[in-house]
Every structure is written in C-alpha cells, then in structure tokens.
Design goal:
Strand 4 and strand 5 (76-86) form a beta hairpin. With 172 residues, the protein is mostly beta strands. Helix 1 packs across helix 2 (107-114). The longest helix has 8 residues, at 88-95. The mean pLDDT is 86. The protein contains two helices and eight strands; from the N terminus they run βββββααβββ.
C-alpha cells in the first residue's frame, strides 16, 4: 500500500496535494509502533483498514498514517511528504512560511500544514475531512531505506515519486 499511495492525492478539509513519499510499517517490524502489541496510543493501527492513525512525534509534531491491513494486524503507512496543490494559502499560514517545497516535506511539516491533530486519529479516510484519490497509472516509484528510525533502518520500505523535489530527503 505504501508504494500504491505514491502519486495519489490527499486532501484534508480541502488542503493538500500529491503524495510523494511514504514509509511502510508492520507489526513484525521492530521500528513499528505496533511491534509490541496494542496500546491506547497505537490502537487505531490495529483497527480496520482505511482509517487514520495519528501520533505525536518527539512530543511536538502530529504525524499521519493510513491503517492498511486487516483488523488486528497492526500495519500502516506513514505519509512522509506531499507536493502541495490545493489550499496552499492555508498551509502557508499554518506553517508560517512561503517556500512551497518546504510546506509538506516531512511527516511533521505535513501534519502541521494539513492541520492534523489527535482529533483525526481513528477517523475514516473515505469521509470528510479526508479525501483520497487514487494515483494515476504509470507513476514511477523509487525505494530506499526508511529514515528517522533506530531499528530496521536497512529495510527498503520508504517509497517516493521519482524526481520529486518535494520529498523530505532525496533518494539515492
């Protein structure tokens, strides 16, 4: 699912754009929040697919994940970066900057730009405030190791839109 989301459009209350970077996480993955089993914090990851799992990173940034496995499995996709396409003024105001490339180029930046909070945790992705449109056919996807983690760093579960200048970190 992490690969399939590259090129898809994600809007939250009308603001968002093209998904250009994701990372996959599974319950058997020591870097995943679901690795040690369900907790109040990660309960949404064990719920039905097609829902949001929102968590706070470093006590500062709200990060958005898509739950994407059968209920009880504990797998998801972290939305790492977007190419802003709609609601750009609102995203600029939330982020306090003008540079389009930096608005959503990382999971914390993306969460702030889209106005993501804990209130979105567990919400269905096929209903307002979310709108997710499938990627067009023929999207060229690149892969690489995940970033910002200390376990299973070599697993190539980071996916990006080839050539995108909106990813959080370039792919090698």
């Amino acid at each position: 699912m992490a690969r399939a989301l590259i090129g898809a459009t994600l809007l939250v209350d009308g603001a968002g754009g093209r998904i250009v970077e994701t990372e996959a996480y599974d319950h058997e993955d020591p870097a995943s929040h679901s690795f040690s089993g369900p907790t109040p914090r990660n309960a949404a990851m064990f719920g039905p697919p097609g829902h949001a799992y929102v968590y706070r990173s470093y006590g500062i940034h709200w990060c958005l994940n898509f739950v994407c496995s059968e209920e009880g499995h504990g797998a998801g996709v972290l939305i790492r970066a977007l190419e802003p396409l709609q609601g750009i003024d609102a995203m600029r105001e939330r982020r306090g900057l003008n540079d389009l490339r930096l608005l959503c180029s990382g999971p914390g930046k993306l969460g702030q730009a889209l106005g993501i909070t804990r209130d979105y945790n567990g919400k269905r992705l096929d209903r307002a405030p979310f709108e997710v449109l499938a990627a067009p056919a023929g999207v060229e996807v690149v892969t690489g190791p995940r970033i910002g983690i200390s376990k299973a760093m070599d697993v190539p579960w980071r996916f990006g839109l080839a050539g995108s200048k909106f990813v959080s970190r370039r792919f090698r």
